[in-house]
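tl;dr need the bound structure. longer version: we got a ligand (zinc ion) that a collaborator sent over and nobodys looked at where it sits. i said id run it. heres the input, straight from their email, havent touched it
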Amino acid sequence: MFRIQPPAVLPARRHSEAHKRENGVMRMIRQIVRDTSFLSQRAEPAGLDDLETARDLLDTLAAHREECVGMAANMIGVNRRVIVFENEGEDMVMFNPEIIRESGPYEAEEGCLSLPGTRKTRRWQTIKVRYQNELFQDRIKTFTGWTAEIIQHEIDHCEGILI
Ligand SMILES: [Zn+2]
């Protein structure tokens, strides 16, 4: 999901598939998928073999840091239920996230790295999310406000829902 602040009006930088070596670790910045028929598919459950997907997602999110605050795996061409997002300044990964409680509907305006422009959508102010963390441990956590909005946008991607 985009920041709707001034940096969001800048055109998204385009990255082709790129390798970069940092601290001896090969990083993989993946190309952003913009094919809406691919993005409209429901994603499959994520498994241990998606740890690499999460790594690539984090690298790709970092490469788009100026304008992007969250991504789902299908945006890099992997149709699995993995999302990454900024949570109070730190990147967080969720496998198989699902919203189990929600409250406080409001109308938001969002942008997406995979889509042109911004669109209006309905979101919840507070959500409780069940997911697996990077160690594939089950977790339940409540989020509010901006972070909750990003998570809802990315979980929608897992359902094949675009704003
Ligand atoms: Zn999006």
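gonna send this back to them w/ a short note. The domain at 6-158 is CATH 3.90.45.10 (Peptide Deformylase).
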